[in-house]
Structures are given as structure tokens and as C-alpha cells.
Amino acid sequence: MGGVSVTIDITGVPPERIAFSPSPLAELGNAVHVLAEPGHHPAHHAWATATNAALEPGLADRLLEADFMWRSTRSDFLLPARPRETLAEELDDLDRIDDETFVGSALEISCSPRYARGGIPSPLVDEGSRRRALDLAAARGPRQAAFAERMISAPTATRAWLRRLLEDCDQAFFADTWRRVRVQLAADARHKTELMRRKGLADALADASRALCLEEDHEGTRIVVDKLVEARTEARAGALTLVPSAFGRPHLIALYTPGWQPVIMYPAASREVGGLESVGTVGLRLEALAHPVRMRMCRSLARGPYSTSELADTHGITAPEVSRHLAVLRKAGLLTTRRRGRYVLHQLDFSVVARLGSDFLESVLR
């Protein structure tokens, strides 16, 4: 799993061009994502249930038509590089983007390697991009396909339709939600800004998320976003915006398409319970648990502390084999170990395994 990350080169970017700032449009994008995929956000289950139940049927249908822009991935236009005070101001900024750029950003919804390479022509001017965008939308459903067709054939009218949809969402539920969360988001952004001023960007990034880190060497300065995506972009002599979100957790979103100003959206006041592990560590743990012998050993280790010789006797293998398997589990951080007299006892670390998934834990306890 090593080397999987989004890297943003910020060499030459002055500190005053790195901004922590809340965005009403970005948070509205998060809110409609939560409505479309409430299973991603158990902490907001009550809000999503109540809001969905109160939606006027026509508005719910319109949200469904366009939901491919925020359900599985996030269209770039929902992550403003220059956050404004109000949603209306950010929507006005969107209106100033030309049709080709807007439609290309709206319909790029696949997170494919093509996105990271950049230089993808707009579906408005390129037949291959048009077919690909329509195929991606069609995979989400007939309503979504029809919406993508309309956006390509009548971009100006469809953009106006989309703005009205977002404004109607604001009136129906988001305005009240934004009044509730914007104070928290503004406070988070101020705290990160002050931390960056006093201690530096590395500390501010670490405070935002353990999945963000700063790397500096003779080649330059980079922000590394720990994600199951391999991509690189740069903000050389440009700017970088970091947007806190109350609805974002567990997502950490990076806008990294070449030619766009990079934007990172992170969960506000992120103090991950139990710690947020790197993608590499999660992969190491899954690999350690995938071996059938180690799976059977975990059944014993979940029930109580065992010595190496006890495990060898229980599972009918040699002590050196047990030691090798224990070393893999220990390297993955899945064991607790303590000494009792001349014996070293090993046990499964329930707090770590539980974060990987309850199905595995229940299977070894069955």
C-alpha cells in the first residue's frame, strides 16, 4: 500500500496564499451528499432522516436527477477555491465560469486516472469526452443520464436549473443548517490560521487531520494527503485553500485536477476517536488477518492471553511457525503483549480490530 497518496506541490507559495476558510457551497455539497448516502455518515443519521422526510417531493426528485455530482464523488465546482461569506456570492462566482469549464468540472465524476492527468477536453467540444460523460451518468440511472444530456445540449439553461436547485435546497433546509454550523467552521478556520502563524503549516495540517502532512526537502515543499488515490498536482506560486466541514467526516476531499487551484476539504475540529490510521497501516492489518492460520490463531487470541507454546499446541504447528505469525500480527499493531513470569503472553487488541470491522471480530468470537 506504500506510496498511495495525493501530493500537492506548494513550493514557492507564500504563507498568505494558504487559507483556511469555510465555504457555504462546499458545505451544501456535503449536506446533499449526506442526504444521498446517509450510510456514510452515521453521526448525521437523525439529521438526514428528518431532512429527507421533510423534503417536498418535487425537490427530492430534482436532487435525484443531479445526485451523481455529489453522491459517490464530488464535482469540482462544489469546492470553491475562493470561499465567500454567502452561498449567493459563491453561486455568482460559478455563473462567471465559461460553459466548457463548468460542464467539464460538473460531469467529471469518476475519480479515474484521467482526472489526475488533466488536459481532458470538455464534453461540449470533444466527442470522446461527451460519450464518456454520458456513459458515466447513465451508469447512475436514467434520470441522471437525462440530466447529463441536457447539460451538454443546453448548458446555459441547465446551469440555471442547477442554481435554482441549490437555492431551493438552501431555502428548504440548508440555510438553517448553515446558521448552526458556520460559527463552528469559522472558529475552526481561525484556529488553524493562528496555529499556522504561530507554529507553521505542518502543525496546522496535523491539527486538521492525521491524514495530512507536510514534506520538505531539496526538491521543494509538498502536502501529502493519505488516500487510496495516486495523484500529483502543484500550486507553485499560486494558492491553496483548506475548507473545514461539519458534514464531511469521514471524507477527506482533495481537488487536484491540473490547472485548477488545489482545495482540501477536511472534517472540522477533527479529533478522530481512537486515532486515524494511514491507508498503509490499514492495508498491513488486512493482509495480516487474511492468512488462514493467523485467522485461526486470532480465534484463540480473542478469547484470552496465550503463550507461544500454548498456541503451537492448540493449532498443531511448531513454535517457530507461531512466532513468525505473531510477528506479522504484532507488526500490524493487532496484538497486546505482556510478560508473566517466564512466559510472554499475547492477546488480540480489541480496540484496534473493532475499528477494522465488527464482522471479523464477531467471527473470531463465535
Would you give an account of this structure?
The chain is an alpha/beta fold. 53% of the residues lie in helices and 13% in strands. The chain is built from 16 helices and ten strands. It has helices spanning 24-36, 45-54, 57-66, 87-95, 99-107, 113-117, 127-138, 142-153, 155-199, 201-208, 279-290, 292-303, 308-315, 319-331, 350-356, 358-365, and strands at 6-9, 18-20, 212-217, 220-225, 231-234, 240-245, 253-255, 263-267, 335-340, 343-348. A four-stranded mixed beta sheet has the order 3-4-1-5. A four-stranded mixed beta sheet has the order 2-6-8-7. Strands 9-10 form a two-stranded antiparallel sheet. A hairpin with a 2-residue loop joins β3 and β4 (220-225). The chain starts with 5 loop residues before the first strand and ends with a helix. The model is unreliable at 270-274 (pLDDT under 50).
The main sheet orders its strands as: 3-4-1-5
* Gyration radius from CA atoms, angstroms: 24 Å
Percent range for β-strand residues: 5-15%
Please bin the fraction of helical residues.
40-55%
Give the number of DSSP strands. Answer: 10
Outline the low-pLDDT stretches: 270-274
Structural class, please? Answer: alpha/beta
User: What's the main sheet like?
Assistant: 4 strands, mixed
Order of helices and strands: EEHHHHHHHHHHEEEEEEHHHHEEHH
* Through-space gap between termini: 31 Å
Topology:
Blueprint: E1 6-9, E2 18-20, H1 24-36, H2 45-54, H3 57-66, H4 87-95, H5 99-107, H6 113-117, H7 127-138, H8 142-153, H9 155-199, H10 201-208, E3 212-217, E4 220-225, E5 231-234, E6 240-245, E7 253-255, E8 263-267, H11 279-290, H12 292-303, H13 308-315, H14 319-331, E9 335-340, E10 343-348, H15 350-356, H16 358-365
Parallel strand pairs: 1-5, 2-6, 6-8
Antiparallel strand pairs: 1-4, 3-4, 7-8, 9-10
